[in-house]
Amino acid sequence: MPVRQDLTPQQITGGAPLRPYPLPPLPPGHFYVEAEDPRSLGSGGIFVREDADPFDEYNYRVKSIVYTGRTQFQDIVIADTYNFGRALFLDGAIQSSAEDEALYHEMLVQPALLMHDNPRDVLIVGGGEGATLREVLAHRSVGSAVMIDIDQEVVAICRDQLPTWHCGAFEDPRATLLYMDGRRYLEDTDAKFDIIIIDVVDMLENGPAQRLYTRQFYELAHGHLRAGGILVVQGLEFSFADYKAHCALLRTLRTVFAEVHSYKTCVPSFLGSWGFLIASQSVSPHDFGPDALDRVILARLGSEWLDHATGDFIKASFSHCKETRFLLDLPGPILEDDVAFVEPPDIEEELPLGQLLPALAD
């Protein structure tokens, strides 16, 4: 229920609770909405099951199913959830939600574009919702954005059902949409790009999409970057508790690029921390301070476009805890064409019985 911000709590009707405090005024374009009372929903209901993890699953309770079907390549569900608004699921895995898609897509796109001197030509591999394209085309310097997605049906459904994701980006004359395999496109084209963004499915299960994660693919992509160009990859679920696939991508990219850096952010609807990787022969995130990034944001995007990304936030996303840094530095397997990815074993730390706190051991 939308709530006008000029009303006092006592004037709000329709089941809103009486609060013993005034609601603060909101900036233009914002308004209060009362959350659903879980007690009013009763038991049962409709759920979309996220079962991408081999051990755990999560049920998203939904108000309604907007679309369900199967394309040539994958199952698709679009549902209106209680916690995260409208959400897109592909093959049982959540891809994005209205509540936090801006966070994911800003962090996928903006660090690379902000760290490039003058991004003009951008290639997007994947990105069916159109939100990655939206964030790219927010930069006026971009004269051409080529988006390659193998699944035309998913793009058409998202175009119709997720308008706030793409914000009309598909109709921008700078955009070119091609429905084909991203690797085949790079094998057949002579085009050069300032930025290449890889935003494809998020699991390494030795399927056909894995050919977009291998050393050979990154060598191919590198050949299509101009001098000073940047490659960015959505880097799968990533934390010190779930790191093996992300670290394999990091090691693989380091066989091709001189500068490869891991960063992450917590995406609430993904139920955890999500990783990204940025790669270049010359551009390092360590060369950009928060103030410098904020100046670039203001000059290129203005003060209102971004919902989440700031200089401080971007800079902080490249900082990792001690355990995570240890895991990122470990040697291990890389991803190669026609070679199955076999995860390394888990690492456990021996904890001696009877160990005392440092203050008690003196």
TrEMBL record:
Pathway: Amine and polyamine biosynthesis; spermidine biosynthesis; spermidine from putrescine: step 1/1. Its EC number is 2.5.1.16. It comes from the Bacteria. InterPro entries: PABS (IPR030374), PABS_CS (IPR030373), SAM-dependent_MTases_sf (IPR029063), Spermi_synthase (IPR001045), Spermidine_synt_N (IPR035246), Spermidine_synt_N_sf (IPR037163). The keyword Cytoplasm applies. Pfam families: Spermine_synt_N, Spermine_synth. Keywords: Cytoplasm, Polyamine biosynthesis, Spermidine biosynthesis, Transferase. Residues 1-20 are annotated as: Disordered. S-methyl-5'-thioadenosine binds at residues 74, 149, 181-182, 208. NCBIfam families: MFS_SpdSyn. Homodimer or homotetramer. Belongs to the spermidine/spermine synthase family. PANTHER family: POLYAMINE AMINOPROPYLTRANSFERASE 2, THERMOSPERMINE SYNTHASE ACAULIS5. This is Polyamine aminopropyltransferase. It comes from Mesorhizobium huakuii.
